[in-house]
Design goal:
Layout: H1 11-17, H2 20-49, H3 54-58, E1 61-66, E2 71-76, E3 80-82, E4 89-98, E5 104-114, E6 123-124, E7 128-131, E8 134-138, E9 144-146, E10 148-151, H4 152-156, H5 159-188
Antiparallel strand pairs: 1-2, 3-10, 4-5, 5-6, 7-8, 8-9
Amino acid sequence: MIEYKHDINRLQKLRNRFDEKIVEKALRQSTATATSRVRTYISREVRGVYPLRAKDLNGKVQIRKYRQMATRALVYIGGRLPLSTFKPTTRKAKVVATSRRGKQFKTTRQRVSVRVRKDKGRQVVRGGWYAKGEVMRRAKDGSARTQYGPSIPGMVAHESVITGATNVAREVLPREFSRRMEVLLEEEGKG
């Protein structure tokens, strides 16, 4: 384990040794930096699997701060994303349809495909079409309904993403805290 000049695990000793305001300020700043790095890590990991933009992910995150402790919680919110988010493409397909009288005839239909995951390739939405910026499909009652894919909280909740984000926080927070303490003590002239 790496030894730092100012160990974050010994906060009480640091508060007794230095000014408490300096220690709290360093803790706040280092926590904010670690939160930002974890958020970036999660965004990169999710965008490595799903073809989303960083803007889509960052719009769905809330950073909850707790006053008593220097703790942050990254909460990803939102329901399932519409399939129109996953770059739909349309193509004409020749099909054999049956009329209401039971007679078969050749015609063309618009086929829509989306790429939900980068590792799976494009998938055809069976019975779906692309209209007015949405991927639609007929429901059993005959009405057209918008089709949805996975949700952002579901993407983030993957075990490898959570484990990696925790590791990033464990690496960044002590290093940043020590660095911030050095800078703040140097400004005060006590370093």
